[in-house]
Amino acid sequence: MNSSRGEQRYVAQFTTGNIEVTKLGEGFLDGPEDVVVDTDGILYTAVRDGWIKRMHKNGSWENWKKIDSDGLLGIATSKEGGLIVCDAEKGLLKVSEDGVVVLATHINDGSKIRFADEVIESSDGSLYFTVASTKFGFHDWYLDVLEAKPHGQLLKYDPSLNETSILLDGLCFSNGVALSREEDYLVFCETWKYRCQKYWLKGTDKGKTEIFIDNLPGGPDNIYLAPDGSFWIALLQVASNGLEFVHRSKLSKHLVASFPKLVNLASGVKRKATVVNVAADGKIKRKFDDPDGKVMSFVTTAFEIEDHLYLGSLNTNFIGKLQLNPTNS
Question: Domain Strictosidine synthase conserved region: where (predicted)?
Fold first, then answer.
């Protein structure tokens, strides 16, 4: 099914000034958490009802592939065509014109892959992906916040061996993952630690980790490599006095566990939108912040292509698009 959707433009009150945000696919999408664009310029997103939807270069939308799941999260383009998809329940999937293939459901040690969150493909076909929590699932993720213990993983899928191995364990809600331009390291996000770490893939430091950036003004969600070698990181507003109170109080933990929507009130996660551009040296270069969430909130992804930034969110029915370097008319 194809759907033509007219673009609606809104002015967002970002801290960097008034920036025009175009709403793509408004009303056709339900919580587009992640966004990617392939080499043909086709935009893809996975939504809550299990559809992977795509927007063609002429602006028309299409229901592309349906997966029996309400836990589709991170997506990545594949050099062989199609997409790699993280399904929080099933594991790692390959989706193409030919259909859906399950790539990985278990790790080499026999344990099931739980809560696959975000994925990236390297030039040799290896897939690096995160598991947000080995203890809690997508629908009770807030319990991971409450327990405040590290249950996340960084995994590698080797297509030549059809095996999945653990690179790192004991991470604090490991989320987005991105390769450097030279693919000598990757950067992964730890949401509850408000930091991103670097994991070396090559060189004398291969297998070692180091802090890429910490003390972020929010919990990092997805991360994408920008054309200039920097990284775009979407930040969730989980650092608040309300959430700290929940962690200190057993009664508050019980209440939030019983009524999970309270965690949104405590953390302010749906109240605003923040994305940062971080250079390869770990220094913030740019920041876009819609403090009142008037146009967008709960932004989970920022993907740059052709001088535009595409914004995904679990709290909207559209994808936001903004021009990074608008010219004055």
Answer: 120-203
Query: Beta-strand (E) ranges in 219-264?
Result: 219-225, 231-236
121 token code pair: 């493909």
- Say if residue 249's pLDDT is above 70: no
Please say whether the beta carbons of 222 and 236 come within 8 A.
Answer: no
29 part of a folded domain: yes
Domain of 174 in residue numbering reads as: 2-237+272-323
Task: Tell me if 260 is assigned to some domain.
Answer: no
Whether the CB-CB separation of 152 and 132 falls below 8 Å is answered with yes
Which of 265, 303, 56, 25 shows the shortest CA–CA distance to 178? 303
Question: What are the tens digits of pLDDT across the range 309-321?
Answer: 999 998 899 999 9
Please, which residues have CB within 8 angstroms of residue 182's CB and are 6 or more apart in sequence? none
User: In Å, how far from its chain's centre is CA 195?
Assistant: 14
What secondary structure letter does DSSP report for 141? T
Closest CA to 28 of 9, 47, 11, 13: 47
Contact between residue 176 and residue 118 where contact means Cβ atoms under 8 Å apart: yes
Q: Are 190 and 171 in contact (CB under 8 A)?
A: yes
Instruction: Give a yes or no: residue 298 inside a domain.
Output: yes
pTM of the shown model: 0.88
Q: Which two tokens stand for residue 65?
A: 């592939």
SS3 assignment, position 91 = strand
pLDDT > 90 fraction of the chain, expressed in percent and rounded: 71
Number of domains composing the chain: 1
> Does residue 250 belong to any structural domain of this protein?
no
* Residue 262: other Cβ atoms inside 10 A: 16
Query: CA 3 to CA 6: how far, in whole Å?
Result: 10
Q: Considering Cα of 7, then 310, then 132, then 123, what sign does the dihedral take?
A: positive
Give the CATH number, domain containing residue 28: 2.120.10.30
